[in-house]
Amino acid sequence: xxxxxxxxxxxxxxxxxxxxxxxxxxxxxxxxxxxxxxxxxxxxxxxxxxxxxxxxxxxxxxxxxxxxxxxxxxxxxxxxxxxxxxxxxxxxxxxxxxxxxxxxxxxxxxxxxxxxxxxxxxxxxxxxxxxxxxxxxxxxxxxxxxxxxxxxxxxxxxxxxxxxxxxxxxxxxxxxxxxxxxxxxxxxxxxxxxxxxxxxxxxxxxxxxxxxxxxxxxxxxxxxxxxxxxxxxxxxxxxxxxxxxxxxxxxxxxxxxxxxxxxxxxxxxxxxxxxxxxxxxxxxxxxxxxxxxxxxxxxxxxxxxxxxxxxxxxxxxxxxxxxxxxxxxxxxxxxxxxxxxxxxxxxxxxxxxxxxxxxxxxxxxxxxxxxxxxxxxxxxxxxxxxxxxxxxxxxxxxxxxxxxxxxxxxxxxxxxxxxxxxxxxxxxxxxxxxxxxxxxxxxxxxxxxxxxxxxxxxxxxxxxxxxxxxxxxxxxxxxxxxxxxxxxxxxxxxxxxxxxxxxxxxxxxxxxxxxxxxxxxxxxxxxxxxxxxxxxxxxxxxxxxxxxxxxxxxxxxxxxxxxxxxxxxx
Length: 570
Prior knowledge:
Elements: H1 3-12, E1 27-29, H2 36-41, E2 56-58, E3 64-67, E4 71-73, E5 77-80, E6 94-97, E7 108-112, E8 118-122, E9 125-127, E10 141-145, E11 151-155, E12 158-160, E13 165-168, E14 174-179, E15 182-184, E16 196-199, E17 204-210, E18 213-215, E19 230-236, E20 239-241, E21 255-259, E22 262-264, H3 273-277, H4 298-304, E23 312-316, E24 319-321, H5 324-332, E25 335-340, E26 346-352, H6 362-369, E27 377-380, E28 383-384, H7 391-412, H8 465-475, E29 486-487, E30 498-505, E31 509-516, E32 522-531, E33 534-541, E34 548-556, E35 560-568
Parallel strand pairs: 1-2, 2-5, 3-6, 4-7, 5-8, 6-9, 7-10, 8-11, 9-12, 10-13, 11-14, 12-15, 13-16, 14-17, 15-18, 17-19, 18-20, 19-21, 20-22, 21-23, 22-24, 23-27, 24-28
Antiparallel strand pairs: 25-26, 29-30, 30-33, 31-32, 31-34, 34-35
């Protein structure tokens, strides 16, 4: 393994990306109703070029936009609405499926076909339920695409009621940034593998998921192609509230972080013996856990020019929990298993309950324990605990999940045209959605309220706006993709005993980050080595120091020096 490749892989994970694609100036208002397709696709010159390349198409909150055809996008495309006013909340503009001239429903709303383009979507509600309010046994999508080298940022959008997936994006080298989104009621009425969140089936460059909620969905949240490159996955501060099958299918990912997340009621199906052997959820005839990995194939190692020991997968400060009603269902289910002799002939039958969901199965745990072959596999501060969500809401969702799984396992699925209702709207219409939504994903477990790597709540911080503002200050403040020399204020400040220091450097240089006391004595060196241009953050542990004022100094090459002050209070 070449050392340079290891360094480059590690550097990738420290870069923090921002919503640069929304920094456009030209803006035009799109009329509501069924005109959105003609308005956007017709915004061209007489020779077919876009009238204003990079134009922002703005929708109005509270309005409905009906798609009479699929938008085929092969140009830089920005579709946005204003931020909501918390003092006067208005539902985001709702994008819905209309009908073709032959009366059939439009299946997909937006299909991205262009290469080397930028896509920005913000403050929108993609409604997968048709205007008649009926959840259908069909395979429809909000977003699809086949383009190459697409930079796609989706911020503060809602995806409700999509029966196949919110997004199916088999694009090569996609950069996908999902922040502050709400995936809700992604329910396929008769199929456990429908209702997916995000599928990316090709070589991926970057997949970033930050502060999203996945509420009452069915299937995959992260689904890259197993035998393709996936440079970097960051899955941070997300809340997953029930899935029917496993949320991730990522056996051979090369570089990923899963931090500060909540996994509640995951793989509610449980796993039958015959499903495990058939590889329904995983591979190698092994039951899967929430986090599940496999060795890279020889072909993939050769394609990437890297060995197993160069892979980096980090789990930190995550919580998972199996609600009791789901556990009781797994325990009560009778799974018949054949007993075979040495010749493989069936000699009888035995029974066992469904295999329950675990954090990591034995095969994956063995990889994390094998520091010789997997030195960069880290699992720290994993918690098994009930977050203690609102009990009325939790009971309604769990009851519907168990009822649906029981119906399906009793042999009534797949061959049916419909199943028992699993969507949760608490008495409201499936199409004309209320705003704000009636459910809340706040929780009361005090242990989890400070359990994140920053000392904040685990899960999606959008449910805790004051903490979200603090997190934004340290994590994502307007950092452009073109880097600059900047030393940020540490957070938290004052601190006890640790704090995070973040900085950016404009170009490759030798960088040092040192901490001094008020006498000018150096008390710590956090970094002293050559770094590439990018954004970085380091944790300073002051547990061995006394309370007082300290200074931290960033030096980059011979041209940049900056000093800031911080306060340790014990």
